[in-house]
């Protein structure tokens, strides 16, 4: 019989994990944060200075954000705003996502882990102008606060939104 022990990593809530067998026991060590869940916008803590943000979700910062995270780390962000388009992030790959500027506007973003932060960087075109986007997702050590730092530059003008979400109770 194999005993299984679960160890956490300081600053990382319970997450998807990989196992390493040592003798007769298996130790599970967390790899990356699990962003999945229902999140509620904390307007008071957020710094939303621009209408650009999470394009395609119906607002720069939707009131409710729903995140599904697969075992391979892929994320799907969605909202309940009528007409919103989900944002799909494949880690280590290029992702075609909605861009500011309308229903048909698209940008290509690559996603990677930088420590415990998910970093998404890419570009597209909006009304004939170059759009450059950098998003960083980070989770508090207790897993109850999600911070999204979204920096958008269009035609040399750069704006950053700091969007704070609190995990909704089940």
Plain-language structure description:
It is a single chain. With 170 residues, the protein is mostly beta strands. The protein contains no helices and 13 strands. A ten-stranded antiparallel β-sheet has the order 7-6-5-4-13-12-11-10-9-8, with no helix packed on it. The relative contact order is 0.19.
CATH evolutionary superfamily of the largest domain: Calycin beta-barrel core domain
Spatial strand arrangement across the major sheet: 7-6-5-4-13-12-11-10-9-8
CA-based shape: globular
Please tell me the CATH architecture of the largest domain by its name.
Answer: Beta Barrel
Order of helices and strands: EEEEEEEEEEEEE
Q: Could you tell me the strand content as a percent range?
A: over 45%
Unreliable spans: 1-20
CATH T-level fold name of the largest domain: Lipocalin
DSSP helix count?
0
Overview features:
170 residues; ten-stranded antiparallel beta sheet; 0% helix; mainly beta
Short description:
With 170 residues, this protein is an all-beta fold.
Layout of helices and strands, plus pairs?
Elements: E1 3-7, E2 17-22, E3 25-30, E4 37-41, E5 64-69, E6 75-78, E7 87-89, E8 94-98, E9 106-114, E10 117-126, E11 129-139, E12 145-154, E13 157-167
Parallel strand pairs: 1-3
Antiparallel strand pairs: 2-3, 4-5, 4-13, 5-6, 6-7, 8-9, 9-10, 10-11, 11-12, 12-13
